[in-house]
Amino acid sequence: MTPRSRRRKHAISQLNLMVVGFKSLGKTSFIRMLFDTLRIRREDNIQLPASLFQTAEKPGDAEAASTKELYSFTLDVEEENEKISLTLVDCPGFIKDNELRLDVQVTEALRYIEAQFDLTLAEETKVKRNPKALDSQIHACLYFIDNANNGLTDKDIRILKRLTARVNVIPVVAKADLLTTSQLANLKKTINRDLKFHQIPVFEFAEAEEDTDIDQELEDGEEQEQTASSFQSMIPFSLIAPEDAIITDPNTSERIRGRQFPWGIIDCLNPKHCDFVVLRNVLLTSHRKLFKDRTLESFYEQYRTERLLARKASKMITKEQKKKLLEDLSEI
Ligand SMILES: Nc1nc2c(ncn2[C@@H]2O[C@H](COP(=O)(O)OP(=O)(O)OP(=O)(O)O)[C@@H](O)[C@H]2O)c(=O)[nH]1
């Protein structure tokens, strides 16, 4: 074992993921499915939020099962021999028919992301820094897109523009089981066209991989290029979450995390049925370090600069200017 791989084996990497999107698109179901596929290292100290297991399979359950407020929980997991402290953050679904409320909800999600930057900033400015300080920054945010729309709506565009200024955003098509293969392919194409047309900088695989060592295992440069572009071609990733009912494979009698229809079974872990397995690998293994690096080097640095400039500007303001500003504000 090389010193590097020995170090890797013992170090615990922190990874913080967030899910956002309009109401009832399957955000909590995705977190539940991800949780269900994890290899938990320490079961003794997990505190799972009750809302994670409130499902809405029966009519009338939807309101009770909807996420009322942002919550997070942390798990010690092991993925490909690496220890990860994984924090999952679930947000209340955005409300479509109230513009003001929608803006407040997006602001709340962004405030949470910025509050984590503030923790890093506070740690950095301490005289004696804590070398074991936790990295609570949100490294990737999955944005759930409603497959009933023909591409991105104006509201999606507005939200995505705000989110992509602060976090690595990965767009996903929710409930892909409701689309045929060609409908899904067309929707992906339209979403990509919309992202490009509106210049929304969601996470890009091809570009990002050029300056990183993530694919060290792939020695052949051509193969590396292919991998990057094949990830990129999957954007937005399609997701299908399993239903509560216990479904078994008729051939093997093994449990399947899936959805059963009169004509067959969808296996959510089958890459032919949806992109969950690929996305899971991207988040937890292949691109984990890249998400973290970009968060620190790009998003945190940008936020830090903005905060320091704002602080400087507020110090430069004279007493008279401050008084006038407060007077003006009280008249509004
Ligand atoms: N057909 C289908 N239904 C799904 C899928 N994922 C979730 N659902 C169903 O959609 C409903 C809402 O799922 P949730 O996971 O609670 O959605 P959410 O986005 O967390 O909801 P809010 O917290 O209200 O925003 C439930 O009835 C789920 O069973 C999916 O992939 N396909």
UniProtKB/TrEMBL annotation:
The keyword Nucleotide-binding applies. Keywords: GTP-binding, Nucleotide-binding. Residues 11-310 form the Septin-type G domain. Gene3D superfamilies: P-loop containing nucleotide triphosphate hydrolases. The lineage of its organism: Eukaryota, Fungi, Fungi incertae sedis, Mucoromycota, Glomeromycotina. GO terms for cellular component: cell cortex; septin cytoskeleton. It comes from the Eukaryota. This is 11686_t:CDS:1. Belongs to the TRAFAC class TrmE-Era-EngA-EngB-Septin-like GTPase superfamily. Septin GTPase family. GO terms for molecular function: GTP binding.
